Amino acid sequence: MKKLLLVMVVLLGVGGAAFAQDVFASYNEPGDINIYASVGYIWSLEASVGAEFVIGEFALGTLPFDWGVAVRGAFDISLSGGWFGYGVGALAQLHLGLSVVPIEFYVALGACYNNWSTYHVSLASFNGLTWWFSDNMGLLVEGGYVGWSFWGVGLEFKI
To answer: Which domain, by its residues, includes 46?
Structure first.
């Protein structure tokens, strides 16, 4: 019984490692430039734009990560109250893609200047997912914080 249990554990470990290698993929190469644009609406019209320069790739076990630096901005326009908010930040960005479906998750963290917070400087965060429907264009859903929270649906272009 112990031998059977040991064989099952070894097979699951080897099979799990092989499975993990087939599940994850990299969608960026060092030197790529990604352009982001999205719009959304919660209490007011929101939009975000940005550009990222992909610097490198690394792996943690079987997880292939891409990373880069980005400049991202978000705007919030109240159609009824006359409010216009903005935030512009510099961020470090990390990507993890899936190979079974052409989806890539990303998260970015940095600092921003905005007209919302008391000191006009705050943490900035962008995160979302991109569904790549061609080699250079994908549909994205993202959210973030640049002194206030926002979300949007848009496009990502790779140039």
So the answer is: 24-158
Cα separation, 84 vs 12, in Å, equals 55
Domain assignment present for residue 16? The answer is no
Structural domain includes residue 11: no
Contact 40, 49 (CB under 8 A): no
Residues 104 and 52: their CA atoms lie apart, in Å, by: 15
Instruction: List the pLDDT tens digit at each of the 159 positions of the chain.
Output: 555 445 454 444 544 544 555 899 999 999 999 999 999 998 889 999 999 999 999 999 889 999 999 999 999 988 777 778 899 999 999 999 999 999 999 999 999 999 877 788 999 999 999 999 999 999 999 999 998 889 999 999 998
Q: Give 123's Cβ-side CA count (13 Å radius).
A: 6
**What is the CATH number for 86?**
2.40.160.20
- Contact (Cβ atoms closer than 8 angstroms) between residue 97 and residue 130: no
